[in-house]
């Protein structure tokens, strides 16, 4: 893989990882809020501490809305400013965890929270486990999340609790180390899976490319031509654009094979294929080996005059080309038939190919080494012929 391809692959994987991170954390956007109301509702805690309930609820609601907005607009933000996305989204995740972690710590030392302290403690452990796993695409973010949830409570038990319970404090930090190991393992597994998925995708794309490639000339083969021609005709009809099809035949190719050998014939095909590729350079142009010594060129968005000019350039350059063989050099010529489709209506692939084939037959019948163009108009009957020799 080239350095450019490797860099693009890395960018694609990073994009997918960030997208997965946003998707995985979508549940976490409101989980704190849901758990909070699930805890305080049956205990009617708002009657015991209305001010505390109000402000904690406000913080959790604001954070939940902000995280949801960021997740919903991932593509819009990340594609334009990846760094901005990270600077906004990551702190929201950590802040949510830190608010809950501080809440857990406060419930352990403030008597007003005594009735819900145990439930908060259990919920914190669950949030650390689920949150750490969901953030597997980003190991550091996962570690910061479990730290924000667990360390405030563990530190409070060890240093600020009136009745110091070293065992409980120690359990908190052992749990942190356990979750750290889980986050690290799941992070490695996630990236291994992601790399395998991208490798499989690249392999599949490469295999698909090989399956649509002509082994001798390096051009696209008939299978690829058929697929692309169908697509390009549909696009031409949909967007009301002209399209041209060139069918090209190497003149007297059988004689070249018989007189100079098949190696010279193969070299002729390869040299002409290279010539075609050098002339048809546009991204949407399709250059294919149609079969044997016959080639096809699809020219989307090309008018009658433009297609004839391109065809004449191909014919002219082919006439100038010389092939090396064991006893010297030899030349060859090509005949070209063009079917031009006006953007008035939709034509089938067979109709256009048949028109190009008829134009090619005329070019060969009239002496070869020339271009014949046929235009398919609205009536699909009138024919405009242009010959160049």
What would you note in describing this structure?
The chain is α+β, with helices and mostly antiparallel strands and 389 residues long. The chain has two domains: 3-205; 222-388, Reverse transcriptase/Diguanylate cyclase domain (Alpha-Beta Plaits), CATH 3.30.70. It is 68% helix and 12% strand. The chain is built from 14 helices and eight strands. It has helices at 3-24, 28-43, 45-48, 50-72, 74-80, 82-109, 114-134, 139-159, 166-211, 222-238, 253-260, 262-279, 304-320, 349-365; strands spanning 243-250, 286-291, 294-300, 322-325, 328-331, 334-341, 371-376, 387-388. Strands 2-3-1-6-7-8 form a six-stranded mixed β-sheet, with helices on both faces. Strand 6 (334-341), helix 14 and strand 7 (371-376) form a beta-alpha-beta unit. The longest helix is centred in the middle third of the chain and has 46 residues, at 166-211.
List the helices and strands and how they pair.
Elements: H1 3-24, H2 28-43, H3 45-48, H4 50-72, H5 74-80, H6 82-109, H7 114-134, H8 139-159, H9 166-211, H10 222-238, E1 243-250, H11 253-260, H12 262-279, E2 286-291, E3 294-300, H13 304-320, E4 322-325, E5 328-331, E6 334-341, H14 349-365, E7 371-376, E8 387-388
Parallel strand pairs: 6-7
Antiparallel strand pairs: 1-3, 1-6, 2-3, 4-5, 7-8
Helix pairs in contact: 1-9, 2-4, 2-7, 4-6, 5-6, 6-7, 6-8, 7-8, 7-9, 8-9, 11-12, 12-13
